[in-house]
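Postdoc handover notes: sequence design on the structure in folder B. Input tokens:
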């Protein structure tokens, strides 16, 4: 299971209500690994060794960043030579989220602790900027000051201008944290409600950010952030009881948020306008969402688990009428009764059986990727841009027969405009990272034996509108393309 949830099991005296403890299963599972670090199953011995990194004076050509948890915090740049360059991070703690921009400046967030158990009050918030450097290892600059010693950074984001946004809090005291991060790594705290937690942040290239979580008296909370002065615009129309777990934005100042309405134990989702008003989405099931995604055309995805423990993914349209395929007889379509007009199309083709979708992502062409688990195995599937049918990826690591439900899963996911993608997670206690072809075929990206134990739960691409992953699949080692263009010949050759 993922790590964040056991923090609440370990601290049941905290003020988070029981509904939140159950509904935010994925986020708060993360701490389970801290308590089980010495119990994690040994990685399989047949994994291929990581390709050694030669000493070179050239800068790392980073095309992605990955991060996760395990015996120690883990994050690494992936370059065009199919090599992972590990970041030098504190010895104890966890990395929960990573982000990267087109200049290959990375931002990582999580927590650090004074001992390997991560127990008690030894956890401190941690965030750092990272960048490729002309030496063997990338440079890492801790973000200072975060003005809150205890707690965790749950989510990070960075835009193409190098401005970052981090959010988190202390689950014991329920004191929230959100801050802007400038290019030098200096943090500026935001005036969010003191009581609560921030679970999701996003920032676009217009220097407008959004943060979501819960606030006083367990109310759902979200606010837009003006990067120039740090002023907040509270999002209106949110559930009185509930939590916003994930937020997304694009460069047209469109924002999409997802969470749970605790009064009905149902999925909650809404499009948010620049003035903070919401266009709520109707027709969503009872259950818990874990992730949302939004592309540049305003097409959105939401993923999670229904109340009957089934994996769930839906595409959500607003304003623009969806393709005719979306209204086909095989798709279940709902129309929102809230202000504005939205359409929810449930994705078909997901396997039956107990499962969860931990992460969804979508490229500018509307092709989606959903990852999580079904039964005791990791699961990942492409979602067609026009037909809204899930096509499962073939070749993910296989679990042991005695693995428990949810023990193996995919969590990290990123897809570029070419349709190629990266997927990461854990299988039999070992991290895995695979490169995915648009056809659904996968290739393993080797992780060294020293870094194999644990999980990968976050992946971000430096230039998602390029064909860097396409070139990586084909073995080409050219420099990255211009971020505003797509190599059409490479796309044709890869299809």
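Designed sequence:
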């Amino acid at each position: 299971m993922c790590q964040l949830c056991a923090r609440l099991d370990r601290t049941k005296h905290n003020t988070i209500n029981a509904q939140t403890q159950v509904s935010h299963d994925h986020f708060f599972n993360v701490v389970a690994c801290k308590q089980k670090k010495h119990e994690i199953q040994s990685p399989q011995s047949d994994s291929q060794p990581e390709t050694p990194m030669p000493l070179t004076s050239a800068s790392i050509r980073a095309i992605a960043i990955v991060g996760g948890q395990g015996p120690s915090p883990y994050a690494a740049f992936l370059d065009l030579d199919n090599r992972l360059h590990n970041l030098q991070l504190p010895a104890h703690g966890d990395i929960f989220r990573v982000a990267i921009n087109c200049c290959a400046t990375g931002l990582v967030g999580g927590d650090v602790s004074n001992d390997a158990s991560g127990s008690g009050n030894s956890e401190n918030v941690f965030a750092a900027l990272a960048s490729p450097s002309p030496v063997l290892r990338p440079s890492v600059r801790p973000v200072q000051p975060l003005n809150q010693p205890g707690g965790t950074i749950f989510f990070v984001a960075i835009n193409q201008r190098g401005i970052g946004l981090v959010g988190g809090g202390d689950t014991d005291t329920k004191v929230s944290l959100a801050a802007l991060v400038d290019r030098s790594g200096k943090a500026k705290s935001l005036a969010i409600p003191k009581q609560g937690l921030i679970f999701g942040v996003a920032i676009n290239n217009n220097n407008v950010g959004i943060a979501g979580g819960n606030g006083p008296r367990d109310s759902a909370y979200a606010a837009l952030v003006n990067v120039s002065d740090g002023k907040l615009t509270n999002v209106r129309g949110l559930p009185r009881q509930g939590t916003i777990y994930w937020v997304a934005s694009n460069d047209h100042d469109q924002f999409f948020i997802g969470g749970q309405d605790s009064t009905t134990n149902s999925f909650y989702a809404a499009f948010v306008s620049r003035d903070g008003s919401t266009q709520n989405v109707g027709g969503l099931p009872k259950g818990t969402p874990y992730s949302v995604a939004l592309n540049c055309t305003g097409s959105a995805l939401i993923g999670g688990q229904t109340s009957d423990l089934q994996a769930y993914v839906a595409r959500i349209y607003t304003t623009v009428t969806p393709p005719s395929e979306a209204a086909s007889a095989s798709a279940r379509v709902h129309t929102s009764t809230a202000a504005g007009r939205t359409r929810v199309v449930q994705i078909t083709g997901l396997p039956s059986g107990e499962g969860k979708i931990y992460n969804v992502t979508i490229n500018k062409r509307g092709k989606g990727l959903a990852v999580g688990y079904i039964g005791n195995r990791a699961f990942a599937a492409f979602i067609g841009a026009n037909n809204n049918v899930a096509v499962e990826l073939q070749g993910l690591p296989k679990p042991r027969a005695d693995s428990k439900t949810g023990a193996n899963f995919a969590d990290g996911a990123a897809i570029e405009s070419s349709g190629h993608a990266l997927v990461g997670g854990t299988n039999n206690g070992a991290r895995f990272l695979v490169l995915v072809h648009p056809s659904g075929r996968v290739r393993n990206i080797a992780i060294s034996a020293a870094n194999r134990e644990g999980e990968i739960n976050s992946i971000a691409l430096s230039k998602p509108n390029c064909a860097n992953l396409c070139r990586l699949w084909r073995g080409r080692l050219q420099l990255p393309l211009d971020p505003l263009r797509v190599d059409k010949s490479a796309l044709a050759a890869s299809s």
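Context for whoever picks this up: The chain has one domain: 60-494. Don't rerun without checking with the PI first.
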